[in-house]
Amino acid sequence: MAAAGSAIGLGTLWKFPYVAGQNGGGLFILIYLFCTFFIGIPLFMAELSLGRSAQRGAVGTFTHHSGAGTPWRIVGWMGVASSFLIMSYYSVIAGWGMNYVLMSLNQFYVGRTPEEISGTFDLLASSPDITLFWHLVFMAVTVGVVYNGIRKGIEQWSRIMTSSLLVLLVGLLGYSMTLDGFGEAVRFIFYPDFAEFTPASALEALGLAFFTLSLGQGIMITYGSYMRPEDDIIKTSFIIGAMDIVVSLMAALMIFPIVFTFGAELQQGPGLVFRVLPVLFAKLPGALMISTSFFVLFVFTALTSAVALVEVVTANLIDLFGWNRKKATLVVGAAAFLFGIPSALSQCDLLFGNWTVLYGRNFFDTIDSLVAVWLLPLGGFFLAIYVGWILDSEKVRKELVQGSTLGWLWRPWHFAIRWLAPVAVLAILLQKTGIINL
Ligand code: TRP
C-alpha cells in the first residue's frame, strides 16, 4: 500500500497527460505502456527483492551485497540525488495545487470564459511571490510530517484519499465522455502514428514510466526492506504497475476531451492539468465541491509521494553523517526549498532570466528532464546490470520467487532484467546522444 501510495502521485495525474500531449499521444503512449510492462515492472520486482534480501535502504543494500567500499554504492547515491531533485520541483507543482484549493473555494471560475479560466494559470505561474509562498507552505507541511514521524497516520489517510480520488476520477471521466471532443481524444490517445516515431520521445516515454513507478532511484529497495518473506513480490509489482497504467490512462481520457472540446493547445507543458480541468469543473453542477475536492486530493497524493522523497534523502544523510533525524529533515527540507526556487520562478523573468535562451528550456524543465530523461533510466540500467549480471542468479531467483505463486515467471523476468532493460536503456541513450543513429 505504501509503495502504491508513493508510486501513484503527481506523475500519473499531472505529468503523464502533459508529456503525452507534448509527444503527440498515440505511439508515445504505446511505448510508455510497453516500457512500463516489459522494463518497469520487472525492475520494480528487482528493486523490491534486492531490498527484501538486504533489509537495508538504497545505499546500504549495495554495501550489504558487495562490501563497504563497493563502487555500486554510487548507484544508491545517484538515486538519492534524483529524489532530492524531484522533491525540489514536486513541491512547486503541489504548491500550485494548494493555491487551486483556495481558488476553488473562492469559485474563481464564476463568470469567466474558458480562455480566462485557463489563463488564470499563467497569472499564477508568473506571480513569483504567490508561487514561492505555496512552494514554501507545501515543503513545510512535508517536512512537518517527516519531522514529527507521523508518516503512519498519513498513510492511513492516504488510503481513503487515494480511493476517493479514484472515485472522483471515474465520475469526471464519465462526464468527459459526453463531450464532443471525446472521439478525437480517444483517437489521439490510442491511435499510434508510426511516422511520428523519434528516439527522443522513446527515451522520454521510458523516463516517464520510471518516474510514475518511482523506479531507478532505489526507492523500491527501501520499500522491499519492509516486506516479509511470505509477501508476493511478483504479484504486488504487477498490481501496482497495472494501477499506475489504469490511473494514467484515466487521467488522459479525462483531460484530452476537454482539450479538444474547448480548443485548448496540446503543447501547454506543466500547466496542462491546471489550465484544463477548471474549465470542466466550471460547467458541472456542484462545481465548488468538485473542484475543491479534486485539488485537495491532488495535494494529498502529492504529499504521500513528497514524504517518501524527503525520507529517502533524510535516511541516507543520517546513515552517512550520523546526524539526528530532526536535523537531517530540516536540512533536507530547507535545501530542497532553496533549490526549488528557480523552478518556482521559471515562468517569471526574475531569476535566471536568460536560462531558457542559453540552455533551450527553462530551469524547471531542465531539472525535470535531467531526472526523468537521464538519471532515472541510468539508475534503472545499473540496477538491471547489478541484479542480472553481478549477483548470483540462484540467490536472486530464490528471493524473487519467495512467497510467490508466480514462480514460473522467473525465466522471462530474468531475460527482461539481463537483456531487455539494459539494452533498451542503452540503445535509447546512445541514440539520444547521437552516438548511434538507427
Ligand atoms: N512516482 C511518483 C509520481 O508518480 C513520483 C516519484 C518518483 C516518487 N520517484 C519517487 C515518489 C520517489 C516518491 C518517491 O508522482
What does this structure look like?
The protein has 438 residues and is an all-alpha fold. It has helices at residues 2-7, 10-22, 27-54, 58-66, 73-105, 114-125, 128-147, 151-177, 182-190, 199-212, 219-225, 233-261, 272-283, 287-321, 325-344, 355-359, 363-390, 393-401, 410-432. The longest helix is centred in the C-terminal third of the chain and has 35 residues, at 287-321. The chain is globular. Residues 6-7, 9-12, 83, 86, 211-212, 214, 217, 219, 305, 308-309 line the site of tryptophan.
Features of this protein?
about 450 residues; mainly alpha; about 75% helix; globular; binds tryptophan
Name every ligand kind in the structure.
tryptophan
Low-confidence segments, ≥5 residues, pLDDT <50? none
**Mean residue pLDDT:** 90
Helix content: over 70%
Number of strands: 0
**Backbone shape:** globular
Distance between the termini: 41 Å
